[in-house]
Each structure stands twice: as structure tokens, then as C-alpha cells.
């Protein structure tokens, strides 16, 4: 029995070992910190809390969504590089927000515990993630909100770097107008209800479509950002409305690409499907000519702007408090630029 | 001993085993010859089942060694043991309820095509053949859960016997069989014996030991006491070896004053019984005899509210009552010790204290929070009264020996202090000493004015304890026998059996 | 026999039983020490207060889940209950301007009623708890979408938000709530007749019924309590985020089940302890918090979490076995 006991302890130690491996580079960072302290006796501009170190926190929206994957990995490489270059002393690593405001608030607690000076946050919700921002700001941390706003962003954050989702919605609608001049029936596949991106994109779509009575919306299924659910909604709509169905507008392009695929499989490649984000899979389809277009939200661009704000703040430069990163309509002509 | 080790099929040498604080076995010996029926005896908790579980590899001994057919032997699990040629019928039955009879018989040694696919048809046919040899009245495709406890026991026996083992361990195989089935089992045992198969036979029923066994080994408190040919010992010797002191074999019934009718059933009809009429009076012990499956337990289950009945009326203290659930019955003062203690008697994973107090909580613990000190005191008292062998009442019921578990079940109903106490096979798996104590308790209760109904498949028990005996036959009451008739020997065991079989005595 | 237990043996047994029940505490301590060594900021009063406040939501859910698992079932509807209660709070407080305490009462009544409904479906019709709560979960989440029309309702009342952020004797309110609920649940499970019945029904339904226990009442009671606690969790959640919406609480049953399992709750039913579950709750909390403080890449965190849970349960099981 004692043998098994030891095996078990080993498993446990192994698990803790895994924990430890996340830490391997830390001593180096500490060294760097002491060195730089020796070099610069006076408190630096970027050292907001005055503890001699510049620490950056990064609270992601999630780690699973394909839209957020390149943003997260860009954050990792860039912040890691900044640490090497001595611009900052350390950063928290990518904290997983799990698309859950509750978890994002908990992650904010941890940034405070780690005495961060700057925190980048990509909020999961406009309303519910706001306490995370408020909490950080109240703790004297400079917060940069990226991708979407929380309610008190304008008032409390030092900068907001994002795009205008209403504009994206308008771009979706306009693409449909251009490609189906005669009008017809269309379906709007929504993201998870209540999400600000879903609400604002929907608003943009409605704004344009309401002015065009030749188009009739025949359904607004709750497809929850899921390509699979959207594909099902598409096949259902094709079965129900047949040739009258002319377009599928989706809140993201995981869904629009899945819808297009379903339509193509049903021999209805004439149906216009379009969505927002610019994920790799839809881009590839645009390249292959399977999908007409997609609206790219430049997430990496948003984050780049956020990190620029931090750099400027550390160096004591002026910076734009609300840089707007435009959406890009990606068609077969410009797709090469955005494909990895 | 000078004798050659090779003359034994199984030799266990200096086996010790402890469970946490309890030393279940202390360096015990056991030597079994081929073709012998070897009785293993001892009080509840003596360590018999534990040693057998070590033999088939369910537990591993702390020290000691075994040889099987001359070669060193150590099973890692029951499958190993079956492969080596040792099969065991467990005291606590454990077949898979959702499998068919055939699947159970061939469990772990299935007939397969290419080692993957089950050959169902062949397996069912073979099982049917075996069942017919034992004149078992069901098809091999019947599911286990449709069988009664006794039938399940038979299946376990059939399973062990059909495995071509050279040593079969039977841990209380007859505890839920009636006399007819027991006789059948004995024929099977004799048949096996003539084929050279050795049998280890564990039972608390003296009669059986003297009838079927050749040699007896006795354990006491985890220690090996001795081994003797059965011909050389008397009942008293055997009991003395087991208990370590002189004990009265049977508890003589005390006749109490019989009062008013406490309980009456009129025209009770339900699944397995019809038109049952009887009365029990205060101070009376009503024995119920009959074959297993004759509707005895079914009637009592219906009265206790575990099953429903279709028609008929029941009266308690002259007032008609309706019982919808055991909770109703308990609240009205009717309690029942179920024959199936594993399924209906105990929560094995909970402590003795919780098990004993469970049905008594509403009455004994009127406050919001349980008075644990009082609970502990009360439970310890009843457990002590019944000589439950356990290190403390905080231990789980699972860690107790079979007989001690039975005592725990009885304890919880004794604490309830009912008006009518129904006991279904109350001394199942209980050793001689404790049996006498349970009988004594029954008399005490009767003396206090309680009405007692006792179902038992052991004829001597029914005959010695009852004021009146009802004999069931195929779901009806086939006859009634008074104590005076038994005392005057105008009715014998044979007559009761005849009634149970539906014949007319004479 | 009971009378001749030696004193030394008795003490030893009590210790072993304690270790058997609460061996997971050792795991918790090892974990805390290990993380504390790796990251000094972990072992600060503020951080512990943070974690305790963070785990309060999962804590409430886990206690309800623990009861359900102990009766041999499971309650998968807790996540949806969280959403529905939250939406009811949003509707009543923001859109109907109700007194916040009254609306908390209404919200709790709603979640309790749905818990009760779960229990009735499970006990009355003898359906599998997994199936029942999987289905009611859809109904409940659907209702929350209907109530909120899929939109986030903002709660601006500072009084209500105070349920999360206020302090009582310098302890944050959610910690006080967790503390109170822990005590109440401890008494409920280990000191009341109802608690005994829960163990009995979970350990062996037939034996429980044959001992006069009502399976129906016990199960309905258990799921009702689970619903009520999910409601309490939702109040904390909503006060914390200041927003009521229908898409919250997805996947929350996972952490709750994990906390129960870590705490020694047996999936076969009939075995559980509240102190064990409390420790399980904190282990889960410390896994999240500790890994983030140490700076484990989030990509590895769920692997580590899974390994720690399996390792801890294995360790606990072996310790238990040794003590048998
Ligand atoms: N799994 C277990 N855990 C702890 N103690 C155990 C366990 N199994 C058996 N014991 C203890 O070991 C002792 C011997 O038990 P065992 O079952 O071998 O008795 P037995 O001789 O078969 O009695 P019975 O005639 O009542 O069946 C008892 O004191 C029992 O409490
Ligand atoms: Mg035994």
C-alpha cells in the first residue's frame, strides 16, 4: 500500500511541477528588476504604484474562441519581448476570462495582488464585466480596455482601443444590398443574446435593412456564435423558403462560413452569407472562392493600439485615448493580406 | 503432523489478517482433503468468511501462505481462483440483478466466438441444461431480479457447482433455503463428493453439520481452535469449542400470558397470496412455516407497507387501519425485520449508530437537532443487549460479519418497541449463542405484551418458539398447529412438511 | 464487544476516521504551502480574503450539489438557476423598482420552486436526476431569456451591489454568507433527521424505505435546498457583476461537482461531509488563484486542474483504504 501511496504523491508532485514550469523564467525577471532599480534610482514614470517595478496584467476574454486566439498569442509575444527589452519588469501571463464576467472580476483581484501597474482587459460583457474595470481603477491601476467597452470605460479607463460594432453591422447589411439588388428573404443568425457585440451588430444590420422594404427578415434564430447551430438554421431556412431565401447574415463569420458551406452543400451557392471577425477558416474560404466576403475585425490591431498606449504612458508621451480600429471588408481581392 | 502435505487439496498455514484495528484472523490453519465436506464453524465474527475471502483472493493476508493441490497458491482475485479450480458461494449474495440467469452462471467465463463476441445461444442452451439437472423451474433467460432470494441462492450454488472446481466454498448456502431446497443441495453435495470435489461448508445450523460433513474445524475470535472428524464430536463439544464455555444449546420458550387480539388480517389478497385470515394476540408468538416462495414473506411485506395488497382488511387493536408505506406502519407500531438484510436491512456504508437509530429518529429525537449523546447511548445499549461484535458503533455496517449485521438489523427494531413485531428469518446466519439470545428477546417482548410473528424456514426453530404455527401452501394458509399439539407430539416435523407441500397429514 | 474497547484503540480509531473523512485537508495544506513558497504574494491576508470571496458562489452551488450527489443523483440545473434568479432580480429591482430585499425574497422563491420541481419530477416519477435536471436546465435558461429578452439588465442600486462589496466587522459579506451557509449545511446534514434520511436514501433506498424514510420527501427536500442555494449564489453573482443576464452560469456545475468529489462525496451516494466539501471548494479556488499568481500559462491551467483533482482524489482514496 505504501508503494501506491508514493506513486500517488508523485502524481501530485508532478502536477505541482507543471505549476512550477510556468514559473521558470521568473527569477530572471527578478534579476532584471533589481538591476534596473540599481540603474534608475528615481521612480520611473510607468511605475504607477511606486514599488519599483512595472507589471502589466492581461485579462483575456477567453482562450477558446478563434477570434481571440491570435490576439492572445500576439499579447504573449509582445509583452514577453517588452520584458526582455526592459520596458516592463514582468507581466501576469494570459489570465483566462472564460467569457465569464464573474471570472474576469476574480482575475482582476489577482492583478491587484500581483501589484500590477497597467492592466489590459478584453471584457466579456459591457455591464457585468465593469466591476473588474472599476475594481482595478480603484486600486490605482491604469486600465486599458480593448475590443469592447464596459459601461464605465469612458470615465475610468485611460484608453479604449476598439472598433465600432454598429459599423460592422452596417457593413454586413450593405454587402447583402450590393449583391442582391432585387431583395428577398434573409435570416439573421445571432450571437449569444445580450452580448454587446451581438446587440450592436444587430443594431447596425437593422438600421440599414429597415430602409429597404424589398428585404424581409424571415427568422432570427439564437445560434449563440456557434457555426454548427447556424448551419442547421440555414438548412432549415432553405427547406422552408426555397429559392426565396437570398441571404444569411450572421453575427460572426464562424457562423456565416458554416452557413455558406451548408448552402453550398444544398446546391444553393447563390445564397449570400456574411459575418464579422475574419477568422482563418472563413478567410481561407474567401480565398478558395467558396465564400463571397467576410468583415474582418482587426483584433490584433486593437491590442497593438492598447500596447502602444502602455508604451506611451511609460515613456510619458501623449496618446490617443480612443483610437478606432476600422473593420475591413475582405474579398478575394485583398484576402492574401490577412491569411497566415 | 506427520501426514504428507500432498494428501490435501488446500492447506492454509498461519494466516493472519487485520482490518484497521480489528484482528480478524490470528495465525489460523486449515487443511482440506479431496472429496471431503469440511465444516468451518465459529461464532459470528470468528473470521470464517474472512479466511474464505483470502482463499479466493478478495482480501490479501497480512502473513501466512497457502498451497492448492500441492503447489504454492495465491489468488489475486476471484477470477484467478476460478481458473485455479476454487469456486465460492458468498454469504452476502451478489449477482448482477440486470443480467439473465445464463449470463450470471457464465460470468467471467463466457462462451465466446473469436474471444470477442458472446455466443448467446450456446450459452443459454448450456445454462438450460444445467438448470434442468437441478430441476430449477426457470428458463436461463430469466433476469436475476425476477427471482426470490432463495432462488438467487440456488443460482449461486448452480454457478459454483457448474464451474468444474475441485474445491467449492459454501458460506452459509442454506441460510435462505427451505428444507426441500436444502435436501436438494445435500444431494448435489454428495454427488460432488463422490467425484472427489472438496467442499468447505460454513453454517450455523448444527443439524446440517452433522448430516452432511465429514470433518470440522473451529475458529474462535480469529483463532484456530482445532479440527476433528465429525464422528468424534458431539453437539455440546462443538458448541464448547466455538464459544469457549458451556452454553445451553437452545433457549427454552417461556410461555407468557396471552391477551387480546392485537392484529388481525381478514381476506388479505395480493401478489403471491390470497385470502389470508389470521389473528395474533398480545404475548403470542405466531410462527409461520412453509416453503420458500409460498407467499409468507409477501404477506408480511404487504402488511408492513412495502408492497400493496389488492383486497382484504387489516385491524390493529380492533380498529381497521390502512398502511400505505413502512413509515405508516412504523408510526402505528408495526415493525418488520426483512429477510433480505443487504437490500432491505442496512445501509452498509453508514455507521451502526446511524443504522440502528434510522427508524427511531422521529420518536426518539423530537428536537430540531439530533441529541447525538443520547443517540449513542441508546444505540450502544441495544447493541450490547444483542452482543453485536464490533469495535465501536461508529464503524460501518459493511465491516461487520454477516451474523453481526443481522443482529444490527434486529437491534433497530427492538429499539422501536412496536406493538406487532414481524420477524422474517430473524436468525439467518446467526450463531448458536446469539440465536438463543434472540429467542430469549422474543420471549421477553411477548411477555411485555407485544405480538410477534416469526417466519422461519428452520422447522426446529418454528416448532420450539411458536405458540401457534401457520403453514403456508401456495399463497394460502394450509394449516394451523397449536403448541399443545407439538408438545404432545401429535404433530411432528413431517406433518408440517406435508402441509407445506399441500398434502394431508396422516 | 462494545464494552471492552481499549482507550488507546479508541483514540487511534477516532484519528483514523478523521483522516479518512478529511484527508483532503492534508492535500489542501500541501497545496497552500507549495503555492506560498513559489509565490509570496499568495500568502497574504488580502489574497486569502479575495479567494474566500471568490469561492462563495461556487461554494453555495457545491453544497446543494453535494446533497443531490449524496442521494445518488446530481443537479445539472444550477447554472441555469443562476441565470434565472439573476434575471428575476434584474427585472424586479431595475425594471419594477422594487425594494431590493423583497426582490431577493422573490428571486429565492423562484429558484426554490424550480428546485422543488426538479425534486418532484425525480422522486414522483422515478426519473433519472441526470435527465430531469438536464431538461429543466433548458427550460429554466429559456425562461431567463424570456424574462430578460436576452438583454443585460443593469443593476445600479448601490444597496444591492453592497451585498457583494460591503463588509461586516471588516469581513466581506459574501464570506460571511459562505460561513453562515456552511454552518447551516453542516447542521442540516450531520445533525438533523433530514440529514440522516439523505444519507440513508443515498446509501440504500430500499433499506431506507423499509425503515420508514420517505424517499419522496427526502429527494424533494434535497433538490429544493439545492435550488435555494443556487438562488443565494445568484444574488452574490448579480451583486458582484452589477448586471443581470441570461447567459451566465454556463458550466458552473462542473466546478461544483469537482468540489464535492474532492471533498469525498461519493458518486455512489450515501457518503459526504460538509467540512470535506468546504475544503474541496477552497482547493478549487486556490487552484485558479494560485496558478494565476504563479503565472502558469492559462493554456496549461485546465490540464493542471484536472491532474490536481485526480491526484487529490486518488490520494484521498488511498488514505481511506489504508485506514480500513
Ligand atoms: N471489510 C472489513 N473491514 C473491517 N472489518 C472487517 C471487514 N470484514 C470483516 N471484518 C471483521 O473481521 C471479523 C471477522 O469477520 P468474518 O466476516 O470473517 O466473520 P464470520 O466468521 O464470517 O462471521 P459470520 O458467521 O457472522 O458470518 C469481524 O470482527 C468483522 O467485523
Ligand atoms: Mg461470515
Give short descriptive properties of this protein:
heterotrimer; A: 340 residues; alpha/beta; Rossmann fold; 2 domains; 4-stranded parallel beta sheet; 13 helices; C: mainly alpha; two-stranded antiparallel ribbon; two-stranded antiparallel sheet; 2% strand; disordered N terminus; binds adenosine-5'-triphosphate; binds magnesium ion
Task: Describe what you observe in this structure.
- The complex is a heterotrimer of chains A (340), B (506) and C (324).
- By secondary structure, chain A is α/β, with parallel strands linked by helices.
- Chain A folds into two domains: 55-162 and 299-325, Response regulator (Rossmann fold, 3-Layer(aba) Sandwich); 165-297, 3-Layer(aba) Sandwich (Rossmann fold), CATH 3.40.50.
- Chain A is 48% helix and 16% strand.
- Chain A has helices at residues 2-21, 26-39, 68-84, 101-113, 130-138, 153-156, 165-179, 196-209, 227-241, 253-265, 280-288, 299-315, 335-338; strands spanning 55-59, 90-95, 118-121, 142-147, 159-162, 184-189, 215-219, 245-250, 272-274, 276-277, 294-296, 328-330.
- In chain A, strand 8, helix 10 and strand 9 form a beta-alpha-beta unit.
- The model of chain B has no long low-confidence stretch (mean pLDDT 86).
- The longest helix of chain B is centred in the middle third of the chain and has 16 residues, at 179-194.
- Chain B has a six-stranded mixed sheet with strand order 6-9-10-3-11-12, with helices on both faces. Chain B has a six-stranded mixed sheet with strand order 18-19-20-15-21-22, sandwiched between helices. Chain B has a four-stranded antiparallel sheet with strand order 2-1-4-5, with helices on one face.
- Chain C is built from 14 helices and four strands.
- With 324 residues, chain C is mainly α.
- Chain C has a single domain, classed as ABC transporter involved in vitamin B12 uptake, BtuC (Orthogonal Bundle).
- At the A-C interface, helix 1, strand 2 and helix 4 of A face helix 2, helix 3, helix 11, helix 13 and helix 14 of C.
- The site of magnesium ion (MG) has 6 residues of chain B, from helix 1.
- Adenosine-5'-triphosphate binds next to strand 2, helix 1 and helix 15 of chain B.
Amino acid at each position: 500500500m505504501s508503494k501506491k501511496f508514493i506513486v500517488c504523491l508523485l502524481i501530485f508532485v508532478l502536477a505541482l511541477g507543471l505549476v512550477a514550469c510556468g514559473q521558470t523564467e521568473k527569477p530572471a525577471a527578478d534579476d532584471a528588476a533589481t538591476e534596473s532599480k540599481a540603474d534608475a534610482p528615481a521612480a520611473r514614470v510607468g511605475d504607477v504604484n511606486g514599488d519599483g517595478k512595472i507589471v502589466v496584467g492581461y485579462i483575456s476574454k477567453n482562450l477558446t474562441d478563434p477570434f481571440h486566439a491570435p490576439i492572445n498569442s500576439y499579447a504573449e509575444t509582445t509583452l514577453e519581448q517588452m520584458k526582455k527589452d526592459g520596458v516592463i519588469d514582468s507581466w501576469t501571463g494570459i489570465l483566462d476570462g472564460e467569457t465569464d464576467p464573474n471570472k474576469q472580476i476574480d482575475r482582476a483581484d489577482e492583478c491587484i495582488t500581483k501589484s500590477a501597474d497597467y492592466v489590459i482587459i478584453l471584457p466579456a460583457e459591457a455591464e457585468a464585466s465593469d466591476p473588474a474595470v472599476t475594481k482595478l481603477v480603484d486600486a490605482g491601476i491604469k486600465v486599458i480596455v480593448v475590443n469592447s467597452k464596459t459601461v464605465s470605460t469612458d470615465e475610468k479607463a485611460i484608453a479604449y482601443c476598439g472598433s465600432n460594432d454598429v459599423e460592422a453591422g452596417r457593413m454586413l447589411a450593405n454587402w447583402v444590398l450590393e449583391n442582391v439588388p432585387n431583395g428577398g428573404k434573409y435570416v439573421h443568425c445571432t450571437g449569444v443574446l445580450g452580448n454587446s457585440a451581438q446587440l450592436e451588430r444587430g443594431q447596425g444590420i437593422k438600421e440599414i435593412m429597415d430602409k429597404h422594404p424589398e428585404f424581409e427578415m424571415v427568422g432570427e434564430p439564437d445560434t449563440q456564435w456557434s457555426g454548427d447551430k447556424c448551419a442547421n438554421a440555414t438548412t432549415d431556412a432553405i427547406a422552408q423558403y426555397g429559392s426565396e431565401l437570398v441571404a444569411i447574415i450572421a453575427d460572426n463569420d464562424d457562423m456565416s462560413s458554416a452557413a455558406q458551406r451548408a448552402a453550398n452543400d444544398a446546391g444553393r451557392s447563390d445564397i449570400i452569407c456574411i459575418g464579422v471577425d475574419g477568422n482563418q477558416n472563413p478567410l481561407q474560404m474567401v480565398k478558395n472562392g467558396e465564400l463571397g466576403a467576410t468583415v474582418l475585425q482587426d483584433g490584433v490591431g486593437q491590442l497593438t493600439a492598447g500596447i502602444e498606449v502602455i508604451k506611451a504612458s511609460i515613456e510619458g508621451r501623449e496618446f490617443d485615448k480612443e483610437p478606432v480600429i476600422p473593420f475591413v471588408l475582405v474579398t478575394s481581392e485583398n484576402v492574401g493580406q490577412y491569411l497566415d | 503432523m506427520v501426514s504428507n502435505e500432498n494428501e490435501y487439496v488446500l492447506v492454509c498455514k498461519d494466516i493472519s489478517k487485520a482490518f484497521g484495528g480489528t484482528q480478524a484472523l490470528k495465525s489460523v490453519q486449515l487443511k482440506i482433503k479431496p472429496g471431503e465436506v469440511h465444516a468451518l464453524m465459529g461464532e459470528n465474527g470468528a473470521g470464517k468468511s474472512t479466511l474464505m475471502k483470502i482463499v479466493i483472493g478478495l482480501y490479501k493476508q497480512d502473513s501466512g501462505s497457502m498451497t492448492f493441490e500441492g503447489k504454492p497458491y495465491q489468488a489475486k482475485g476471484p477470477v484467478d481462483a476460478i481458473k485455479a479450480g476454487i469456486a465460492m458461494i458468498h454469504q452476502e449474495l451478489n449477482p448482477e440483478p440486470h443480467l439473465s440467469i445464463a449470463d450470471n452462471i457464465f460470468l467471467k467465463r463466457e462462451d465466446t466466438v473469436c474471444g470477442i463476441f458472446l455466443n448467446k445461444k450456446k450459452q443459454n442452451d448450456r445454462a438450460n441444461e444445467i438448470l434442468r439437472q437441478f430441476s430449477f423451474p426457470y428458463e436461463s433467460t430469466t433476469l436475476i431480479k425476477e427471482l426470490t432470494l432463495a432462488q438467487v441462492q440456488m443460482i449461486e450454488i448452480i454457478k459454483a457447482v457448474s464451474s468444474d472446481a475441485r474445491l467449492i466454498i459454501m458460506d452459509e448456502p442454506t441460510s435462505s433455503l427451505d428444507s426441500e431446497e436444502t435436501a436438494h443441495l445435500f444431494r448435489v453435495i454428495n454427488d460432488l463428493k463422490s467425484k472427489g470435489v472438496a467442499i468447505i461448508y460454513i453454517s450455523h445450523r448444527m443439524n446440517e453439520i452433522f448430516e452432511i460433513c465429514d470433518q470440522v474445524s473451529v475458529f474462535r475470535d480469529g483463532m484456530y481452535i482445532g479440527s476433528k472428524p465429525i464422528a468424534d464430536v458431539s453437539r455440546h463439544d462443538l458448541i464448547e469449542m466455538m464459544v469457549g464455555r458451556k452454553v445451553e444449546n437452545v433457549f427454552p420458550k417461556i410461555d407468557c400470558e396471552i391477551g387480546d387480539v392485537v392484529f388481525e388480517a381478514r381476506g388479505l389478497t395480493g401478489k403471491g397470496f390470497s385470502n389470508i385470515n389470521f389473528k395474533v394476540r398480545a404475548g403470542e408468538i405466531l410462527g409461520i412455516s412453509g416453503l420458500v416462495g409460498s407467499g409468507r414473506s409477501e404477506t408480511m411485506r404487504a402488511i408492513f407497507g412495502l408492497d400493496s395488497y389488492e383486497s382484504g382488511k387489516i385491524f390493529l387493536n380492533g380498529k381497521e387501519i390502512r398502511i400505505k408505506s413502512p413509515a405508516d406502519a412504523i408510526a402505528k407500531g408495526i415493525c418488520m425485520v426483512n429477510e433480505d438484510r443487504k437490500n432491505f436491512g442496512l445501509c452498509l456504508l453508514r455507521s451502526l449508530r446511524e443504522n440502528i437509530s434510522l427508524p427511531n429518529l422521529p420518536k426518539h429525537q423530537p428536537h430540531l437537532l439530533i441529541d447525538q449523546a443520547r443517540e449513542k447511548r441508546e444505540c450502544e445499549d441495544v447493541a450490547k443487549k444483542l452482543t453485536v461484535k464490533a469495535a465501536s458503533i461508529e464503524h460501518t455496517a459493511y465491516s461487520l460479519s454477516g451474523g453481526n449485521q443481522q443482529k444490527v438489523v434486529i437491534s433497530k427494531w427492538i429499539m422501536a418497541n412496536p406493538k406487532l413485531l414481524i420477524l422474517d428469518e430473524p436468525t439467518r446466519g446467526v450463531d448458536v449463542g446469539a440465536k438463543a439470545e434472540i429467542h430469549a428477546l422474543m420471549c421477553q417482548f411477548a411477555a411485555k405484551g407485544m405480538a410477534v410473528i416469526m417466519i422461519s424456514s428452520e422447522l426446529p426453530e418454528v416448532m420450539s418458539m411458536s405458540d401457534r404455527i401457520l403453514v403456508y401452501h401456495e399463497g394460502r394458509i394450509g394449516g394451523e398447529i397449536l403448541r399443545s399439539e407439538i408438545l404432545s407430539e401429535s404433530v411432528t416435523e413431517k406433518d408440517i412438511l406435508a402441509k407445506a407441500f399441500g398434502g394431508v397429514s396422516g | 464487544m462494545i464494552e471492552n474497547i481499549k482507550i488507546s484503540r479508541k483514540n487511534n480509531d477516532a484519528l483514523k476516521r478523521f483522516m479518512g473523512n478529511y484527508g483532503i485537508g492534508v492535500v489542501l495544506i500541501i497545496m497552500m504551502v507549495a503555492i506560498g513558497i513559489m509565490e509570496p504574494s499568495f500568502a497574504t491576508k488580502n489574497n486569502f480574503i479575495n479567494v474566500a470571496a471568490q469561492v462563495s458562489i461556487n461554494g453555495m452551488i457545491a453544497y446543494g450539489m453535494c446533497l443531490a450527489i449524496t442521494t445518488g443523483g446530481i443537479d445539472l440545473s444550477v447554472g441555469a438557476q443562476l441565470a434565472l434568479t439573476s434575471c428575476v432580480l434584474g427585472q424586479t429591482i431595475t425594471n419594477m423598482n422594487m425594494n431590493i430585499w423583497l426582490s431577493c425574497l422573490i428571486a429565492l422563491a423562484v429558484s426554490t420552486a424550480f428546485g422543488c420541481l426538479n425534486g418532484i419530477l425525480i422522486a414522483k416519477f422515478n426519473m433519472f436526476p441526470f435527465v430531469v435536471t438536464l431538461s429543466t436546465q433548458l427550460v429554466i435558461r429559456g425562461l431567463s431569456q424570456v424574462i430578460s429578452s436576452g438583454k443585460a439588465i443593469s443593476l445600479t442600486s448601490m444597496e444591492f451591489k453592497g451585498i457583494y462589496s460591503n463588509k461586516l466587522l471588516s469581513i466581506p459579506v459574501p464570506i460571511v454568507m459562505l460561513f453562515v451557509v456552511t454552518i447551516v449545511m453542516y447542521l442540516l446534514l450531520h445533525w438533523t433527521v433530514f440529514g440522516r434520511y439523505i444519507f440513508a436514501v443515498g446509501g440504500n433506498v430500499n433499506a431506507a424505505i423499509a425503515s420508514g424514510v420517505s424517499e419522496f420527501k427526502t429527494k424533494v427536500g434535497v433538490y429544493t435546498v439545492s435550488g435555494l442555494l443556487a438562488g443565494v449564489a445568484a444574488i452574490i453573482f448579480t451583486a458582484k457583476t452589477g448586471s443581470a443576464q441570461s447567459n451566465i452560469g454556463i458550466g458552473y456545475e462542473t466546478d461544483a461537482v469537482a468540489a464535492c468529489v474532492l471533498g469525498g462525496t461519493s458518486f455512489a451516494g450515501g457518503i459526504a461531509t460538509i467540512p470535506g466539501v468546504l475544503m474541496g471548494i477552497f482547493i478549487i479556488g486556490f487552484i485558479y488563484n494560485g496558478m494565476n499568481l504563479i503565472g502558469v500559462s492559462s493554456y496549461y491551467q485546465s490540464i493542471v486542474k484536472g491532474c490536481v483533482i485526480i491526484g487529490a482524489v486518488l490520494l484521498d482514496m488511498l488514505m481511506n483504504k489504508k485506514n480500513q
